[in-house]
Amino acid sequence: MKIKRISAYILDSLILLMFVSFLITPIQLNDKKVFTKFKEHSKEILDVTADYIKVVSSNDVKKSLELEKKVKSLGENSKKLQYKHRYSLYFLSQKILTVLLTIVYFVIFPLFNNGQTLFKKIFKIKVEYDTILKYLLREEMARNFVLTSLILYFIASFNYSLFSLYLGYITPITLSFMIINFIVFLVNKDNKALHDIIAGTNVVEV
Question: Helix or strand or coil: residue 132?
Answer without folding.
Answer: helix
